[in-house]
Amino acid sequence: MLQTSLANLDFTRYLRSGDGVLWGQTAAEPVALTELLMRQRHAIGGFAAFVGATWSGATAAEHADVVRFSSYCSTANNRLLAQRGLLEVLRCNYSALAERIRSGGIRVDVLLLQLSRDAQSGRLSLSLGYEYLVPALAAARVVIAEVNDRAPWTCGDTPIEETQLDVVVHTDHEPVPPPAAPLTGAMQAVARNVASLIDDGDVLQFGIGSLPEAVLRELADRRDLGIHSGAFVDAAAARCEAGVVTNARKRRDPGVSIAGVVMGGAQSCRFVHRNPAVRLCSVEYTHAHPVLASIERFVAINAAIEVDLLGRVNAETAAGRHVGAVGGAPDFLRGAMAAPGGKAIVALPSTAGTGDTLVSRIVPALSGLVSTPGEDVGFVVTEHGIAELRGCSPAERGRRLAAIAAPQFRDMLLRAGAA
């Protein structure tokens, strides 16, 4: 293992033209390394980078003069690339990422990590992201790590040994913060309706963004909730600190919140630091169907762009542009449908746009891709109510979904459903 400084780190010694590089997403991104990599990109020559949801400037369109970017999503700053046709989006369930990495479908010649070191024991951790970094660690030819003194040390399912690292640099900076997530009145109303489906002792999965965070904020009066989710966010930390989330009734991983990546800011980072009540795990655990189907009263809460009258979900495209992801929603919704007492919830405001551009997000037929099939959706929730789809015929599904659409679109939807 070579210990060096950022000033002396030359990526051309480790990354060859044509190679593939991968790093952690959102707050788990080793931004000191990725910023340096982008500055040195011309010296390296053409290479590929697989990125998750990005909060930093690493996916600036100007970097695509050399770097071929791919991702599972077009969210966050990845939209800057997607809007210009500079991002290859891999359409696969999140649970498939580990196998794609192992098989070489996602090439990982060089892996960049943000690590933390425990001041007492000296042990290293993967800090804010485990998920697909765990299989990437096994696949990479070269591992370059940024040991960040201000990154939280987390309890996880995969220990890190110094023998696994080829190059280490030491840094001291706050992890990249999340962008502001605006919350509309309609989203708040949707969140209240979703919250009405959640009972004491339920085990929650929640997607990312302002709507799932709003749902968590509506649960202040619940007791003994649990968490098994892909992401751990600031609102989850707040519910844990308030004693709402205790994981006390979980039979699987009792007393512990399970997640793959921390997608929050300072509050989440403080809460997960050296906290055994939160365990970060590989995607092969967080998203595995046998695991999810075994969690009693597992409630999956995921957002959507639009839902058709059969309950099929488009979470990827809007107005002809790719702006989202297949992501983990199909894994979690399917798991919740199979879990004892589970609930598979898709939540969205009933409309998009304003004035003459106002459109219904409950639609006769999807305008984009089918991200989740209708049979894996148990409830659809808007600000106008809750449509339970379990056990319903196609015609009844259509009637129930039309009833929670915006009032001015209901007659149109009923006619379309009857056609």
Identify the notable features of this structure and list them briefly:
single chain, 419 residues, 25% helix, globular
| Share of helical residues | 25-40%
Largest sheet: 9 strands, mixed
Global morphology: globular
* C-alpha end-to-end distance: 67 Å
Q: What is the number of helical segments per DSSP (H or I, 4+ residues)?
A: 14
Radius of gyration: 21 Å
Strand content: 15-25%
Q: Uncertain runs with pLDDT below 50, 5 residues or more?
A: none
Number of strands: 27
Average pLDDT number: 96
The SS-based structural class is: alpha/beta
Write the layout of secondary structure elements.
Layout: E1 2-4, E2 20-23, H1 31-39, H2 41-44, E3 47-51, E4 67-71, H3 79-82, E5 87-89, H4 97-103, E6 110-117, E7 124-125, H5 133-139, E8 142-148, E9 155-156, E10 167-171, H6 185-195, E11 203-206, H7 210-217, E12 226-227, E13 231-232, H8 234-241, E14 257-259, E15 261-262, H9 266-272, E16 278-280, H10 283-286, H11 289-293, E17 298-303, E18 306-308, E19 313-314, E20 317-318, E21 321-322, H12 329-338, E22 343-347, E23 351-352, E24 359-360, E25 362-363, E26 379-382, E27 385-388, H13 394-403, H14 407-418
Parallel strand pairs: 1-10, 2-3, 2-6, 3-4, 4-5, 6-8, 8-10, 9-16, 11-12, 11-17, 13-15, 14-16, 17-22, 18-25, 22-26
Antiparallel strand pairs: 6-7, 18-19, 20-21, 23-24, 26-27
Helix pairs in contact: 4-5, 6-7, 7-8, 8-9, 13-14
